[in-house]
Write a structure and sequence with these properties.
alpha/beta; Rossmann fold; GMP Synthetase, Chain A, domain 3; 8-stranded mixed sheet; 7-stranded mixed sheet; 30 strands; binds 5'-O-[(S)-butoxy(hydroxy)phosphoryl]adenosine
Length: about 650
Amino acid sequence: MSAPADERIESVLQETRMFPPPADFAAQANISSEEQYQAMCQKAKDDPAGFWGEMAENLDWFKTWDTVLEGDMPETKWFSGGQINASYNCLDRHLKTWRKNKAAIIWEGEPGDTRTLTYQELHREVCKFANVLKKLGVETGDRVTLYMPMIPELAIAMLACARIGATHSIIFGGFSADAIADRNNDAQSKVVITADGGWRRGKEIALKQNVDTSLEKSSSVEKVVVVNRVGCDVEMVPDRDYWWHELMDDVSADCPATPLDSEHPLFILYTSGSTGKPKGVMHSTGGYMLGAMLTTNWVFDLKEEDTYWCTADIGWITGHSYIVYGPLANGTTTLMYEGAPNWPDEGRFWEIVEKYQVNIFYTAPTAIRAFIKWGDEFPNRYDLSSLRLLGTVGEPINPEAWMWYHKVIGREKCPIVDTWWQTETGGIMLSPLPGITSTTPGSCTRPLPGVVPDIVNETGESQPENSGGLLVMTQPWPHMLRTLYGDHDRFIETYFSKIDGCYFAGDGARRDDNGYYWVMGRVDDVLNVSGHRLSTMEIESALVSHPEVAEAAVVGFPHDLKGEGICCFVTLKSGNGSDELLKELTQHVRGQIGAIATPDQIRFAAAVPKTRSGKIMRRLLRDIAAGRESAGDTTTLEDRSVLEKLMAKEDSE
Ligand code: WT7
């Protein structure tokens, strides 16, 4: 998947199936005519400040901005002089309406326990926890780490941080102690919120224990708050560790939202890049909230009576924007599920859809491929007729998976929105608008209003229809990242140095004669495993940190379920490697990064193929990992015998 863009385009099937929006869906859609869409796009192009300024009136501001947009990429400021609070926009403003007693969050725990919080109840919990944070010494501008299972307390903690202007940094619960320590050190987090554990396939996942280990290596953290979720034994360090429920017993429910500058950092979210440590993608308050609110409304066509379910984990950007901030800013009922899709059996998601009469369902291609593998009998056991709209995100969706989703889950009635975006973009950028866009399997179709993409070559020239190239954004948008935390130079270098005047997303894509975009995947050394970005370099350094490993090269290979699997070529300091060592290395990578980086293959190799300048020839390794005959150019290879040995090994396996 990381082959050069133009190489991959050859392999893309010419897809001609078109699915116009069903007439009844189109008739009720929030954006309901092509003219309306075109007019919005035109206005955004001609007068970006006018367009976004008008849109921003849909948020509640304590003080109106002086200027909509200041500066140009990469140094943009949105809604300067304006004051706003994300928590206020997700909660308080609904309390003045009939939504006060509407369900904000419907939560289902993996063991089957449930909880529903109305907007008023959620507001109360958030205010209380904001007071807890204050009591622990958290101030506006401080960083707070959240390492939690998918329980309501996670959303409460996010909104409580936002309420007082503390910047949250959420770390996905699958990451290891070392990964937590790195992120805490980078962000200089003052407080960590966690739980004793979380449920996953009936097992308790220890979270507090990982936090304890991480704190041996991160000194900025002063306090830890622990939710009692699974009831397992945990060690509580006096004057450092506190139980959530005890702290909450002791605070008032009165905590007005702090007015914050529009550019105030709402959160940092760490994501993988091709080199170096994880990047702390930092988002603003005003611009981010505007993007999250609008895109949720446009793409998911939200209606007051909808029950909306995004199956992502809040530890990823999808959960930030499309479980919490976007839906709540719209006053939607957002469903949150704690556990695995195959617990107690492979029908769990569909059972939840039936139980809560879910109307809008947003998931990832990797999950869809798992559903297909598990068999139609699971979805077919349940009444899915409440569903009216389906979505996907995370990686290109293969047309077979798209068609299955359309037929088996959508009963050929639900539009599918294939949404392209990134941690950095904050919200959806390219996606069908379900009431007007004809969809076609594998394409994320067209830009949303206000998004101005292009396909360019290495020198920045716009490419004609159907030629592959680099996907860039030529105009700033309010919800784009503002910096990489603590490393503004890297921010400019990563996103703005490749193509002059443009944001470079790192993806290869083409635009067809219909103006539809086809995203082919990343062009650098970043893997997309189950819809999550992993850096090959980080996995390599995890391997090399093992005392027996001399060198490691990690590449992706096509994987039926995960999209991309992780293949590691490992050169040992001595000896040939054994099954024992293979297991040990697998565990070692899991320990260093987390279960998400578990290698699918580890191959011991006497050496890895390199160029004369010493660069690992990943293209060759990718071919070997995928079991392909390597057809590419090998003239720059330093030592041909290395390749021959690797290939010979392949044959004997
Ligand atoms: C990368 C961003 C955005 C939330 C999930 C991942 C790939 C994402 C699509 C899509 C083709 C997609 C891209 C992108 N990607 N959505 N609909 N079609 N590719 O967030 O970890 O920041 O990864 O995921 O390669 O650059 P992320």
